[in-house]
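User: Predict the complex.
Assistant: Input components as received:
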Amino acid sequence: MELSGAQILVQSLIDEGVEYIFGYPGGAVLHLYDALFQQDELKHILVRHEQGATHAADGYARATGKPGVVLVTSGPGATNAVTGIATAYMDSIPMVIISGQVSLPVIGSDAFQEVDMIGITRPCVKHNYLVKDVTKLAETIKKAFYVATTGRPGPVVIDVPKDITAPNIKVPYKYPKKVSIRSYNPVVTGHKGQIKKAVDLLLSAHKPIIYSGGGVVLGEASKELTELTHALGYPITSTLMGLGAYPGTDKQFIGMLGMHGTYEANMAMHESDVIIAIGARFDDRVTGKLDLFCPYAKIIHIDIDPASISKTVRVDIPIVGDVKPVLEQMLEMIKESSKKPNKKALELWWHQIGQWQAVNCLEFDRESPLIKPQHVIEQLYEVTKGDAYVTSDVGQHQMWAAQYYPFDKPRHWINSGGLGTMGFGLPAAIGVKLAFPHADVACVTGEASIQMCIQELSTALQYKTPIKIINLNNRYMGMVRQWQEFSYESRYSHSYMDTIPEFVKLAEAYGHVGMRIDKPEEVRPALEAAFAMKDRTVFLDIMTDRTENVYPMIEAGKGHHDMKLRVALGTTTDRELA
Amino acid sequence: MRHIISILMENESGALSRVAGLFSARGYNIESLTVAPTQDPSLSRMTLVTRGSEEIIEQITKQLNKLIDVVKLIDLAESFHIERELMMVKIKTTAEMRDEIRSMADIFRGKIIDVTPATYIVEMTGPSEKLDAFVAAIDPDSIIEVVRSGPTGISRGEKGLHL
């Protein structure tokens, strides 16, 4: 079969099993769009801005585990995609981004809409390819998907010059079934001797804690993690990225750890004598000040990426490997071991944790006449029965969603953890909804974040992806304001907007339903009404307490045991803000 | 401590910039870098000299290994190895200085590879310290320019860095 480069690209994606491609046309990809027009297997989602395409593909990938695919034109199309590529890179999300490029003979001549996409994306991709020969196109696409989805996943860019896709140059096409790259051999199984050592250490612990991360979600190892945790009877905490890998409502789960983690999770980390980190990378938002991190603990670390091991925190027993088979092996060894967890020590440990839990660090003022954002998330949890896919943007609302919506299943909590990209939530929700049209999808956001990609409301209408936007509107960039309150003597420098659009009218203008909620008692009925409208996107503009802060908080430069807790219930409501 | 990292990588366009970019993005320093194709034209051999604590060097080797184009690498400083650097020095030569420069080049086993009425070019290979010593032994005012390749190295014994 002889095909043009454009046809090869489209056919390769079909042969790869791609269902959706998120994109935006332009000069350098016109041949490609013409090839797309002449088929109907591959569905193209036309976004309103290339950043939206990357986040939508990313949301799709996070919810399904399948790679997200993006198509953008050269120059500004490519640069607009960079934020989304970096977002996926930081959270190890498999994506393949196809960017148009000017024709090969004019590369380097500052041609119209030319930008060095390979150079620009190099630090934020797992790998990238410039296609210089149309006969290598199919193989390059296969390689890109292979690299993106194996080992530690990540985004891969394929930069395709326009002349490579020219309709008049046809070459034989065959999509390779398999591909191998001699310089790329990701480790899969863990070292047996190391796993044995880890099991021995785990079983001799007195104050153990399991610290699980996004790698468990990416590695599809929820079942194994849950079995291991149950078999050991140890407390488990999770990073922001790992939420849902272990059931959030289970009694062994003691909440998220880190900067806005629970008191009990952070205290348990600080006091522990053995930590097993599973698919987590000791991010600075998790560790706090490194010198103060877990002073009494021996650390086991399972990670597929050798470079994650001992990057910031020295570990005692590293295990490089795919988390799923490593946990399986570990579980088997635990079952076969004559040693059992120290029951007496564990009882004391749980008693200690119980005392920390009694602090009730997530309690908030439930009597307030103002809408407490935490209340909204709790109601969202109840109305959706804990079953929704929840995407978020970045800031206070993101932390509240993580704290007050316990996820029982993996791939349901979808947020930009590593890069912290405002604007992520809405397009990501569209991607999720396309993947799971019958599931409830909520985007928890704030009035600042939502404005960063709000144009995608139009995409949501065009492709009939009815999502619910929970806009916690506090008329501040809440997290910025919180830091300014704590660290800059409440000098609220540019963390508020004097003009905020009327979101109800805006939602209506985009063809959706808008609702404004002003009183606490209106929250529940509004949410119920919104989720009852199965075929409509609903924008809930919820006017929340402007002064509310996220607690607990480990401020910069402090350790896990040094948390800022809510001083007393009810005090925040009355505070005067500048 | 000083480390010499020897890298076998795909001879692809952009491979060099991936390594250089990694060093600048992560704040590692590069003292020198040499690169050329091997007997197998699909592979390049790169020698990179860097400095850092054990932790930093461990991260550098791990991060380099993560690059898709990197096939293999070794830290030569960890074992017996031979290290050589090529240098060419252009020296201003007055009539009375010529003998002195020539004998100095001989002592250092250098060669004079170009002569003009007013200059010599001395070529020299050796460990970097030897080249440093030669430069130090020459009157700095007479040196017009110094060109150095940066060190390259190879491990001793039967083992080698190959596919």
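The longest strand of chain A covers residues 95-101.
Let me know if you want any component modeled separately.
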